[in-house]
């Protein structure tokens, strides 16, 4: 089915992204995976190409284009290229809205120009060793000391944790406030008492630096409070829908790409004297996966359109996230199986997709959390 949601401008942007990936990312990606981190130079290259800060106003060096369909194009192409290590989606779609939507004019002048050039790499620090997806369980504290906040605590599984120059930290500013006693504080590279642990060794997305962060009596200036005091819960809930949509877009793009790779493989690979594609079981597997992708694509494209128009709610974003990422997980498993022994070899893209994509049903809110959000909306 021909997709209806993109204009000629979106497709021109797609060609730009593909050229960037071919020149600046693919030739270096194997080395970045060995290093466990991408180069800072590729972030600057992305900035020069106009891939960072798509929705940031032009006065701060951004693209001035809030249309989420451009972000969807970016997510789709990075997924097809097998390049999750350069976390531009995290930078643009997850951290970006906090800075553009909550920052004061002074904060925007300080942070957004570097955000758009790639000189300032960003991260958001919510997850803690004992809290996981439970915001009420956050133990990182920020005490009001007059002219500054005194920040203490730790975070884990923080994407861009090694490279980040600016980290949006969720901290407890009112001890008795529960989820409504949390605030967002921006911690900048070089702050005394701000430490980074090891670059965590993951089963996939090897080029994406993921780290533990430690805050020991970090003096955070009062002017680094982002948004309202004790307003983090509402801020987080407002922006999580876009985070989940970005993950969902990557999920369906990955499933479709796996289908393409596997369809080509079974046409070429022979067994018992004929191509695998001639076996009825193989045809049924491809038929099932193609149908699941087509149905999911129709729903995701509708969600992309609704989000671009400001109409998408948290419930439908949660539906998109859990369904698309669970499809991605099933597709990776089934396509690896259809590749046989070759699917287990790391030089085959299907093997890399299998390990890189496994996190998709976990971060941004697990599948179980997504179902809880949906079920609560229907039954409460």
Give your account of this protein's structure.
The strands form three sheets. A four-stranded mixed beta sheet has the order 1-4-5-8, with helices on one face. Strands 2-3-7-6 form a four-stranded antiparallel beta sheet, with no helix packed on it. It is of the alpha+beta class. A hairpin with a 3-residue loop joins strand 2 (141-144) and strand 3 (148-159). It has eleven helices and ten strands. Helix 9 runs antiparallel to helix 11 (367-379). The longest helix is centred in the middle third of the chain and has 37 residues, at 232-268. The protein starts with 7 loop residues before the first helix and ends with a helix.
Number of helical elements: 11
Strand content: 15-25%
Major sheet size, sense and barrel closure:
4 strands, mixed
> How widely separated are the two ends?
37 Å
Q: What is the molecular shape? A: globular
| Radius of gyration computed on alpha carbons | 21 Å
Mean pLDDT: 96
Supply the helix-strand structural class. Answer: alpha+beta
Per DSSP E runs of 2 or more residues, the count of β-strands stands at 10
């Amino acid at each position: 089915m021909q997709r209806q949601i993109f204009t000629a401008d979106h497709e021109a942007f797609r060609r730009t992204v593909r050229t960037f990936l071919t020149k600046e990312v693919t030739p270096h990606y194997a080395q970045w995976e060995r290093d466990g981190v991408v180069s800072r130079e590729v972030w600057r290259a992305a900035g020069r190409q106009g891939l960072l800060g798509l929705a940031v106003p032009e006065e701060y060096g951004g693209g001035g284009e809030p249309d989420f369909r451009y972000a969807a194009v970016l997510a789709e192409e990075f997924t097809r290229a097998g390049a999750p290590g350069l976390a531009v989606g995290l930078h643009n779609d997850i951290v970006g809205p906090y800075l553009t939507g909550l920052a004061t004019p002074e904060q925007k002048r300080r942070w957004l120009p570097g955000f758009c050039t790639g000189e300032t790499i960003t991260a958001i620090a919510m997850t803690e060793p004992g809290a996981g997806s439970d915001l009420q369980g956050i133990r990182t504290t920020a005490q009001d000391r007059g002219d500054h906040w005194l920040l203490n605590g730790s975070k884990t599984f923080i994407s861009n944790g090694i490279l980040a120059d600016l980290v949006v930290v969720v901290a407890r500013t009112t001890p008795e406030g529960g989820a409504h006693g949390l605030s967002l504080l921006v911690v900048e590279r070089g702050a005394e008492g701000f430490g980074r642990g090891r670059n965590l060794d993951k089963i996939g997305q090897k080029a994406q630096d993921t780290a533990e962060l430690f805050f020991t009596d970090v003096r955070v200036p009062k002017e680094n409070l982002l948004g309202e005091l004790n307003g983090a819960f509402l801020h987080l809930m407002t922006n999580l829908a876009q985070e989940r949509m970005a993950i969902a877009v990557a999920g369906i793009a990955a499933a479709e790409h796996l289908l393409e790779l596997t369809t080509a493989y079974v046409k070429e690979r022979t067994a018992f004297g004929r191509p695998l594609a001639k076996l009825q079981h193989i045809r049924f597997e491809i038929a099932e996966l193609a149908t699941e992708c087509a149905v999911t694509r129709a729903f995701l494209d509708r969600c992309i359109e609704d989000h671009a128009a400001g109409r998408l709610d948290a419930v439908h974003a949660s539906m998109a996230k859990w369904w698309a990422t669970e499809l991605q997980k099933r597709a990776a498993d089934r396509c690896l199986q259809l590749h046989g022994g070759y699917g287990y070899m790391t030089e085959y893209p299907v093997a890399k997709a299998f390990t890189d994509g496994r996190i998709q049903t976990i971060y941004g809110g697990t599948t179980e959390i997504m179902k809880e959000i949906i079920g609560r909306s229907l039954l409460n």
